[in-house]
Amino acid sequence: MSFKTFVGKVIGTVNSIVIPVIFALSLLVFVWGVTKYFFLHGGNEEERLAGRQFIFWGILGMVLMFSVWGVVNMLLSTLRLS
């Protein structure tokens, strides 16, 4: 197995397995934050603040995952590793 093939397989694995799993986790964090902010706060402002923080971190995670996914795809196409 050549180095180019090995690197292509590693990047392909990251692109097809790792990034979607992390994206799904960030989406779950976002949905949990929305649920906590709107439905589970029980009138407590501290709980609403915690929900808002979950929403923020969920959105940040999704943005980062889209960025990493884009960089990985650019690497694959530029280096012709796929």
Describe this structure in words.
The protein has 82 residues and is mostly helical. It has two helices and no strands. Helix 1 packs antiparallel against helix 2. The longest helix is centred in the first third of the chain and has 36 residues. The model has no long low-confidence stretch (mean pLDDT 87).
Short descriptors:
82 residues; mainly alpha; 2 helices
Whole-angstrom Rg: 18 Å
Which residues sit in consecutive blocks of at least 5 with pLDDT less than 50?
Answer: none
Mean pLDDT: 87
Question: Structural class of the helix and strand makeup?
Answer: mainly alpha
Please report the total strand number as a whole number.
0
Total helical segments: 2
What's the helical proportion of residues? over 70%
Q: Mind sketching the topology for me?
A:
Layout: H1 3-38, H2 45-78
At a glance:
This protein has 82 residues and is mainly alpha-helical. The protein is built from 2 helices and no strands.
